Amino acid sequence: MTADRAAQPVLRVESGEKETVLHLAGRLDDATVAACWDEALGAVSAARDVRVDCAGVDYCGGAGFALLVALEEAAGRHGARVRVEGLAARFRELYDGLEREKLRAAPEPERGHGGWVADVGYITSERAGDWRAEAEFVGEVGAGLVSLARHPRTLRLREWWRIVEKAGSNALPIVGLVSFLTGVIIAFQAAMPMRQFGVDIFVVNLVALAITRELGPIMTAIVLAGRTGSAFAAEIGTMKVNEEVAALTTMGLSPVRFLAVPRVLAGIAVTPLLTVYSMAAGIAGGLVVLMLIDFPLATLMNQLSGALELQDIAAGLIKSFFFGAVVAGVGCLRGLRTGAGPAAVGDSTTRSVVTSIFLIVVLDAIFAVVYYNIDF
Amino acid sequence: MDADHIVEVRGLTAGYAGQAVLHDINFRVRRGEIFMILGGSGSGKSTLLKNMIGLYPAMSGEVFIGGDDIVGARGAAREKILRKFGVMYQGGALFGSMSLEGNVALPLEEWTRLPAAARALLARLKLQQVGLDGFAGYLPSEISGGMQKRAAVARAMALDPALLFLDEPSSGLDPVTSAELDELIRSLSRNLGITFVIASHELSSIFAIADRVIMLDGGGIVAEGDPRELRDRPTNDYVRAFFHHGKERAAA
């Protein structure tokens, strides 16, 4: 339909010595104007005086007015004048009412803070504010957990179970799958080169230690960061945007104690449980690979019982408490720090995942150094 | 449907999840008039409006826009009908990441072959028509609620539709800004000949701009006609309560 209308000629140009006449006719709408825009502007680009004859125009839409204004601007650039004649009265009134000066592209409003020095100062002060807020948050969550330990009845149990269910049991399939496949990959990668030296049975030791001490806790924490931490950030961020957080504050309730403390407690509770499950799934993945390359299960279990000590599992579990607190805490903090606007919740969610993963890796490095120094 | 009417709703039954909220709705909207759908909260004003613009699927009935039924239309036929009207949503629904000019130019970019310079000029022209000169480069978050609604009207007008649907245009606005928006609607109707279909319950707006109204209650139309006549000679208790309680409260 658009193409049909565009095909109808609405412009005829007569170039004379004294003036150039543009005869416009029919409907001046987006389709017909688009078809003649370049030709019309080209015709006036070098003309001295321009007359636009609109006697044949039976409809002039916004695109038609835009064309007339553009013709004026194009002619005006080299000092030519444009006369629009014959425009029907109802369109003429609208055309004459246009304020040409204000139709020019306006500069974008100033959004900076006045030069790079001011920007650096602004960002520094904003970061300092962030750190202060983060320190306050950690303190308030810590105080909230202590208070909860002293008065456990203050925990809203039904709400807390809902969070535990979403963060914990609902995460079992993905944590199990990721951990199982991690065990499979490690076993596959290690078995082939180790077989060349006749030590492929020690793949069991490698998988067991790697999974229990490092990969089990880390994979669980990373899955939780992507799944639970981001959900906390999005949920609390949406509450902030909807002014539910403000409502809590004005009711005299601390949003940190009301929203963050139960979630951090849930994170601390479910992460070690998921980590144990992850360890079991990862080791199972490794054993399946070794069974596929003809090791009997009894041999593998015997090797496993010799390779794995309770201390290795404890080393992974201790970390997982901290990982759980970090993932849940960062998710809640980012949610509570959500700004305004439609992109704010998305930004909070992204920042929650990125910060959580970064802190998980940093914490893991710290644990590695500490464990090494205390020979754990 | 004759040429004098731009919208005709025939036997429309609409609702959510199999539950009908509106039953057998019938009315017509004349070209060039400001037509208001009135009713209390929960009476189905927005539901009716959203069924008329094809946003929700009607349970039964027909909605003719410029002679074409939007209820059964699919694909290209539906797109053709959608191009005949513009919509302003209750909250404005401007895209937060785009400037006002970008918001208004978006439908032009998608639906026309106008060159970029023409689109930008046309977008600024539309913004001027709603009194937003000089704000083309602003983001929606940088302007007031009233200005956002004006910008939303400009975006709805981008493709020069003959028909605009407005969902609660005055909600959340102070009386002065609300009156300015009413004046804008009146001037666009007068100068551009645009037909307006507006869902509202603001008494001041109804008497300021509406040519004709229908009133919804209990899932059906309980009154239709000139709002001043309905106020002065209410046809039933609900219409009396709607106009007179509101007036008494305003007077108090």
What does this structure look like?
The complex is a heterodimer of chains A (376) and B (252). In chain A, 73% of the residues lie in helices and 8% in strands. Chain A is α/β, with parallel strands linked by helices and 376 residues long. Chain A folds into two domains: 2-103, STAS domain (Transcription Regulator spoIIAA, 2-Layer Sandwich), CATH 3.30.750; 121-373, no CATH class. Chain A has a four-stranded mixed β-sheet, covered by helices on one side. In chain A, strand 1 (11-15) and strand 2 (20-28) form a beta hairpin. Chain B has 252 residues and is α/β, with parallel strands linked by helices. Chain B has a single domain, classed as Rossmann fold (3-Layer(aba) Sandwich), CATH 3.40.50. Chain B has nine helices and ten strands. In chain B, strands 6-7-8-3-9-10 form a six-stranded mixed β-sheet. A four-stranded antiparallel β-sheet of chain B has the order 2-1-4-5, with helices on one face. In chain B, strand 7, helix 6 and strand 8 form a beta-alpha-beta unit. In chain B, 46% of the residues are buried. The A-B interface holds A 1-2, 6, 29-31, 33-35, 37-38, 61-63, 65-67, 69-70, 90, 93-94, 98-99, 102-103, 105-109, 340-343 and B 80, 96-97, 99, 108, 111-115, 117-118, 120-122, 124-126, 128, 133-138, 141-142, 157-160, 191-193.
**Broad structural category of chain B:** alpha/beta
Strand content of chain B: 25-35%
Instruction: Give the biggest sheet of chain B.
Output: 6 strands, mixed
Mean pLDDT of chain B: 89
Secondary-structure element series of chain A: HEEHEHEHHHHHHHHHHH
CATH class descriptor name of chain B: Alpha Beta
- In the predicted model, the low-confidence regions of chain A spanning at least 5 consecutive residues are 1-7
Mean pLDDT of chain A: 90
Please give the largest β-sheet of chain A. Answer: 4 strands, mixed
CATH level-3 fold name of chain B: Rossmann fold
Annotation, overall tally of beta strands of chain B: 10
Largest interface: A-B, 35 and 34 residues
Q: What is the number of beta strands of chain A? A: 4
Structural class of chain A: alpha/beta
Globular, elongated, flat, extended or rod-shaped: what is the shape of chain A?
Answer: elongated
Whole-number tally of structural domains of chain A: 2
Alpha carbon gyration radius of chain A: 35 Å
General form of chain B: globular
